[in-house]
Design brief:
InterPro entries: PfkB_dom, Ribokinase-like. This is Carbohydrate kinase PfkB domain-containing protein. Pfam families: PfkB. The protein has 325 residues and is of the alpha/beta class. Helices cover 30% and strands 24% of the residues. The chain contains 12 helices and 15 strands. A 9-stranded mixed beta sheet has the order 6-4-1-10-11-12-13-14-15. The protein has a 4-stranded mixed beta sheet with strand order 3-2-8-9. Strands 5-7 form a two-stranded parallel sheet.
């Protein structure tokens, strides 16, 4: 079976969103680890709040952050999942390490002595239809924002040993962790480890110049993004329909020069319902991929964690296809 045959079925069909029967490949996730308070407002919209209000609603405190959330889903697909991040040194550090052990993730975290762990608060309001509006407040002084190049170099062996290293754009928002992210991508690229990159936050085009983002796209082998996010970043009108999303590939090709990453473009009513998987053709012809599929997200599906499950599924699918090629 070649790559073309292996990618004929969309990843939501095989391996599917419930995990892989045959767990293969080694994944290293680099990113954010925080303590997160999650609240779902019942029957209340943010727009209705004009004064102080006491509300009793479902609430939970969890070990989360971009790296933990992805790793938690990835263990259902990958043989080994490691997590590399900078965490704090307080009463919650043990809880973080125990949670990583509980979910079956190799703990490669570096501890910053004498500083607290990062905290985030997520509140989602209620909506007549759809998932509602999410307010996410993240601690600006979280240790993850100080993950350094030196930290990354100390984990070079783990990066080289992995089949794929997963990075995300939140790390680009801090100059220190931005340099670390670029260092991790370069070490991976030089050693043959695939680089997967999640282009977040979704308003990254408003937070930093594209000149600080595009070079990382040029190092990536897999890029996960909402179609509207990458379109805005590249100065194009945000696509809405399938046809408009399918018009993006020439723009994407120019953004990464001669490289051929796999683009996983999310689009739809809430930018999660559909995916266009695209990879440009080789210079000598062949190897082009253009596959559109429904993600499986829709009414009645829990939104929290769905994107991470989908991404884990897609990464496994692509690595499997490459192994057959």
């Amino acid at each position: 079976m070649g790559t073309a045959e292996a990618t004929a079925r969309p990843p939501v069909v095989w391996p599917g969103l419930r995990g892989a029967a045959d767990r293969r490949f080694d994944l290293l996730v680099v990113g954010d680890v925080r303590l997160e308070m999650r609240v779902e407002l019942d029957g209340l919209r943010f727009a209705e709040l004009t004064a102080d209000r006491l509300v009793y609603a479902p609430a939970s405190a969890v070990v989360a952050g971009t790296a933990v959330n992805l790793a938690r889903s990835a263990v259902g697909y990958f043989r080994r999942v490691g997590l590399f991040a900078k965490i704090g040194d307080d009463d919650h550090t043990g809880s973080i390490r125990r949670e990583l052990n509980r979910i079956g993730v190799r703990d490669l975290c570096r501890v910053e002595t004498g500083v607290p762990n990062g905290v985030a608060v997520m509140v989602r309001d209620d909506a007549p239809a759809g998932p509602g509006v999410r307010l996410l407040v993240a601690d600006r002084d979280a240790p993850s924002r100080r993950l350094s190049e030196a930290d990354v170099r100390s984990a070079a062996a783990e990066i080289r040993a992995a089949d794929v290293v997963f990075l995300d754009g939140y790390a680009l928002l801090s100059p220190v962790s931005r340099a670390a992210t670029y260092a991790a991508a370069r070490i991976a690229a030089e050693s043959g480890t695939l680089v997967a990159f999640d282009l977040v936050p979704h308003d990254i085009d408003e937070r930093m110049p594209r000149s600080e983002v595009l070079p990382l796209l040029g190092l990536a082998d897999v890029i996960v993004t909402e179609a509207v996010t990458v379109a805005r970043l590249l100065g194009a009108p945000p696509p809405v329909t399938s046809a408009e999303t399918r018009a993006l590939p020439p723009l994407l090709d120019r953004a990464v020069g001669g490289r051929r990453p796999l683009w996983l473009l999310r689009f739809g009513e809430t930018n999660l319902e559909n995916v266009l998987a695209y990879r440009r053709e080789r210079e000598r012809g062949g190897g082009r991929l253009l596959l559109e599929y429904a993600s499986g997200y829709g009414e009645g599906v829990e939104r929290a964690g769905f994107g991470d499950r989908l991404t884990s599924c897609e990464l496994y699918w692509w690595l499997s296809a490459r192994s057959y090629g």
